[in-house]
């Protein structure tokens, strides 16, 4: 992958349109992105990452704020990147999602994210020549071409030095997280989980079999009453249980047969005695029944006479009931006739029926003639009400017309006054913006005037601190020089302290030491000089920091004074007061614009409405007057016709109702008279029928027949009593005539006490023996069935246990336990192999940059307190010959190790992904911790990278880096923002 150009607009700190020509920058294979802190160096890398993957590295991606806050509203936020990947040149353009002002109205709207990819030369196989415009299609195509995810790209191409310093010192879990993300070893973790899951499933199967076995053993123990724990083997225990169950069943069957024979003998004797006792009781009961019936013979004869009389009187009683009903009907008919006669005043009630019916017909004819005029009268009432409503409407309309005329006269003056006030408010609204800007400007200047004294004080304090830092640094330098002179002066004594008799001198090689140096007062050792030098370096750093603070404070004071332009705080307060009063006055007037606009619209709408209402009301009044005159004429003519039809009644409807009521009364009179005459005839006929029924039943008269009457319940009671007596007598005679009772003495006494007790005892013994035999049989069957199931379960569980043991051992090995002596899981093993490759690749560069002193050492030992091993990383110090933790490295040494590790990891990841060849590499910050010699070694390593065909871009604010690259290469500047310089 090689970058050609980058264009960005309103992106990050860049408010306008900027471009970077990577072809020009990369001619010599090395360039520097240099600028002050916050100048936007890392933003160039963010733009490259966003163009490719639609996101930026690290925590900045979580904020989702890529648009420049100070960019013009009309400038869109876009990033365009041209690059060549796998021999194909393409251009990618992206825009993030951000908020922009609405084109119409106030507020903001969301500008959706966009992406496009277009081919600039040849099109890869399987790709569309038109490119892609969907975000997901662009992302998929970039991933296919580069062969790596966004996380891998950020670690391989945009080397973040700070993150690799953390990776260098990280513990096992943090280091594993990054390696898993870069090398995609999730499938190995899934394999570990697969084994764990399979082991759980296998264990559940074993537990299920064990549960079945426990249940079966428990059930056999419960049935047999023996405990398997008392036996050495469950198989032996099961055999004993089966033998005992068989023996118990056979013994119970023998006892059952014996008890059954004894029970049958006792029950046969008991049955014989009970039969004889029953015959004696039957003979005694039959004799007692016949004697009792003979004593009640007279009573039974009286019951027969009473029942027969009641049966003969039944027809007479029925005829008498019919007579009473007919007499009641006649009484009701007579009352109805008298009531109807009383209502027919002035009518001859004894007149023939035909005469009365003819009079009723004449009344109905007159009522029919009046029916048509009833509707006319109803319409007359409706028209009178309508006429009154029209009169009221005409009067109300005249009043409304006068009111509308008055409103129309007042509206023109009100419209003119409102329009004049609206013009004044709109002028104030136009002047409000400049007035508000002036207030804001004066407010800001007044704040600047208040900040200036504090800035001057801070400048003075910074100057004093700088002078103190200069003095401190100078003193530290003097002490270093003094200690170096004193150490040199005592160097002979220091060497003499290491001499021994017969040993050669390390300087001249002589074994004789005639005049060794004498120790000096207060000798100085190398550690003293080193400590003084460290103090001097810290003082120098504080001196530089103080100088920068003084320069910054001076720039702040200068900037504040330039903004004030020699204006005092009092002048600004006075001007601000005047401007504020003017702004508030204009704002108060401008706030009335909506109200006045609405009010003017209301007045104009009201004027149009009044004119429209006046026209519509006039037309309605004319129509109402015409309708009123026509309706008044019709009402007058209709009154004459209705007066004739009304007669002496209050209305035509009342006259018609009177005629109908007369006809109805006469009809009721005729009906009542006919009903009275009919019931009178029926009463006479029924009286004759009652007398005839009494004679036919054999009674002397009607009264005698009615005296013999009995209700149905009494008759049924008498019949049942007589029938019962006859049945008792027949039953008793039949019993005494039975052949099996012949010769039975009713006075004989039969005792059953001893026989019943013996039979009950034998029956209980037999029932217990039956229950015992059945229980033994069932227990034997249950034991046989459970034994068969238990042996089958044993046979099924054995291979399941064996398979689980094998799977559990394999799962433990895969997950770093059991027979895994190194205690490394499968994923950790793969990551350890990757880390070992990274350590080898990084060691090559670390030895080059550390002048052969340091190299990486990979360790697969287990971590502390059982943490997984395989991801240990130490450094081997060639000076001491011992490996030590990476956390013991100094700042500069950590940068060298981190950079070496980042480059080594980039090489391994690029080779592992099998994607595009990475011709461009960026290294972000970290150079400020290096001394001059170490920086030379780093630059030599970078030269090796670009000598291999790569283009290396450095991101740093270190001035020495700028000078070093400028002195080695020719300078070619291009601007990318106000404070960012790109050097090649």
From TrEMBL:
Biased amino acid composition, Acidic residues: 519-531
GO MF annotations in UniProt: ATP hydrolysis activity
The keyword Translocase belongs to this UniProt entry's keyword annotation: no
Keyword line: Coiled coil
Coiled coil regions, renumbered to chain: 316-343, 708-735, 759-793
Disordered: annotated span: 511-532, 571-630
Rad50/SbcC-type AAA domain: residues covered: 5-185
Keyword Coiled coil annotated: yes
Residue ranges with Basic and acidic residues bias: 580-615
The organism's place on the tree of life at top rank: Bacteria
Biological processes, Gene Ontology terms: double-strand break repair
Pfam family, one: AAA_23
Family, per entry: Belongs to the SMC family. SbcC subfamily.
Subunit structure: Heterodimer of SbcC and SbcD.
Protein name as catalogued: Nuclease SbcCD subunit C
Species of the source: Allosaccharopolyspora coralli
